[in-house]
Fold Cation diffusion facilitator family transporter.
Amino acid sequence: MSNRYKKAQIATVIGIVVNLLLAVLKTFGGILGNSRALIADAVHSASDVISSIAVLVGIRAAQKPPDSEHPYGHGKSENVATLIVAILLVIVGFEIIYNAILSVVNGTVESNTSMIALYIIIFSIVVKEALFQYKFRLGTRIKSPALVADAWHHRSDAISSIVALFGIGLSIIGASFGIPYLGYLDPAASAIIALIIMYMGYKLAKEAVSMSLEVVLNDSETETMHETVLAVDKVRQIDRLIARSHGSYVIVDIKISVDADISVEEGHHIARVVKQMLLRNHEEVKDVNVHVNPY
């Protein structure tokens, strides 16, 4: 197992354990504290557990070596995991909105939210933001789209917890000062949380689909690759260089021109050096296909 995948797996397992504990804590806190917003936040944390498991499966699949059916490797497995996370976010968000509306329509809004819900939500905000910072920085460093997606899931949970904090806080104030209508802010906060969750799911799904379509890197992103190839001895020019994303890594297809009077063996050696230099100097490059043309 590569160091990259090992780090990603450790981060994902940590996220699963923390989210599971938070989901249980928020559920009991929401029930005991009569807070629909906190229960909605508990559902969000539970969805984090499911999404982290999906990410873990995707990361493990992505490290499999190339085979006859997947000659460029299994890098897109991480994008599939990201898409699963996105779909879960949208489904969870819709369910929370539905329950919030139902509580208002049926008049089942609680007006006696207790302080325990407030303490739990503050604790959750601190923990989730810490998880976001840890996973986002690691995912960016090791170029893991699934881990970055999971990090944003933690950030969306932290944001939703802040919304829940306002809803719960104002609901408690309403109960303390005899303002029953403030009790509606608790389910309203849960609905806002749901919208945040759904929007985050949309963004992640859009990014996952884009990555799965093998986006070609632009000229500025491949400029250093051109410099690397042109620095190779006896490469006269680059006829074409296409670098395309393949999940968390990049595949390069390149055509180079060399002197027409050299031997096939020498041309093959130059192509091999070009491939080695691109792999050595650009850690995001997983494979290189070199075609040699006469100059």
